[in-house]
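Annex B. Sample input.
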Amino acid sequence: MKRLFFLLLSALCAGPGQAQTQDIPDDIVKKVDPAVVAIQHERAGGSGFVISRDGYILTNGHVVRGDDEEDPTQTAKSITVILNDEQKYPAKVIGFSMDPDIALIKIEANRPLQAVEFADSRRVQIGQRCFAVGMPLGLKRTFTRGILSNVERTDLGTETKVFQTDAAINPGNSGGPLFDLEGHVLGLNTYGQSGANNLGFTIPIHVALAVKDSLLAHGRFVRADLPVYGTSELYSELARALNIEKGVLVTAVLRNSAAYKAGLREGDIIVETDGRSCSASTHAELLDYTWDLTIRKPGGDLAFTVLRGPAASRQRLSLTAKLEAMEPMPKWGYHAGEIVENRYDALGLGVRQLVQMSRILFRLPDASGVLVSTARASDPAGKAGLKEYDIITHVAGRLTPDVPTFQRELEAQLTAHAKAIELTLVRGKYNLVTALAPYYGQRNTKVALLVPMRDHEYVELLRRELIASGATLTTAGPGAKLNPADFNVILLAGGVGGRDLWSDAATLNLVKEAYAAKKVVAAVGSSAVALAKAIPNIAGKKLTTAKDDSAELIKLKANYTGKSVETDGKLVTTTGFDRAIVRDFLKTLYRTVRDNE
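Annex B, continued. Sample output.
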């Protein structure tokens, strides 16, 4: 399969009346134009289209997704929607999926918006004329015309079939709509192929709307599943060999899975689903069949009629199964993954929850534990011989069947400053024992971590990294009565809730006393303003904070620098914008502690 990547769909900028729009009636252009929007954020952007007058907008998942490699469910931080009249509104991500590549976002406009109308994308035909609308970054919106050159592309590795269009496409716009000549949306432009000229791909709008409904109900795409079985189309040669006219072939059933317990077996031919005849003679028909199951409500019953055995003595059996919500997806193909990594950067170690799909995709053994996702060679994890896709089953002799248990057992050892932590792991067919030897560079550092009561960010990251580095950690909330003499560092966690610390008397007093006692005082994001409020004579001291709170520092006469991480003597602050910046902040904090010992 050729390597595919996401391209932002659009056309070269064209003025009114030029050739690109000559076959699109003026009244249709005026009809659809107000419903197409531009989307921008700190990383990039794309396009989208309004689907309801109250501000719901469809776009691509990859347009709004963030770049947090540890948490693939995170979105971009600050998303702005630009309407056709250049009005700008902040957008909230309701949810997104990477396969199908769909996101639902919402803006609160000061007026009802003009929404698109939908075509029936199940009734499209090859050769049907269409046009795409997009707003490439830095250019005005563009219209490009073409035809649907294929309506059943199944070789892109995507979960559903997609449409192919020859409407001119260029990098610069994703998430825009593909219209029929009546101005009804046929699909959502998304995939492109490297090196291909005038070859773009579109998710059928009926697929996009099904995902939209799930995103609206759950905040994520909840797939229905009957784990774990595989199916195949009955192409003509196979159908003749099996002496069967039509159906769906069951190719794999995992022993003791829900599918196995429901009675499905390899070689069964499904001929009815919920009393309706079903058949797949092509891969496109198979994708349609599995998609219809995927978008059902988990928890419901699913009835199969199957044929089993050789043609001369086939049995006709009725089976009933219960659909389940599919486990989070690991990273695979177009799926960016939905499983959060728990990373201990000080150890060079990251783990993720192990799901059944990981076992299937990566051919992992049937062992209970957590999956190693990061093992840096130069750090303790690598030196212990850990490798990606190892399954850690025990820490210090204790079972670790899931991530919370693993964290609890590992952090108990780290808190005790264990010189060597025994790990038992499974790699392929082998059970191995190794030892993790942490480097406790902050063994003598005592940190008071103040956590806002609401909407805090990266507290788990701060906690994990401080413990893994050997620091002695005390965690408290606003109002806590702490003695600054007991600590080397007073650290205020960030997030929107950090603003609550600005007026918390106990926090302000602790910061003031700690700074007067020449302790290191540090803050993440919005909490940096609390330092400026608490410390006398803050004027001229270099501080940074979240961009939205910069005016508060300036008002207090602090020297707001806007840097990602800032130090001024024993003051250490950060914008707290993302995990990478927070980790840089911790490294700076450690250096500051060392320099002031």
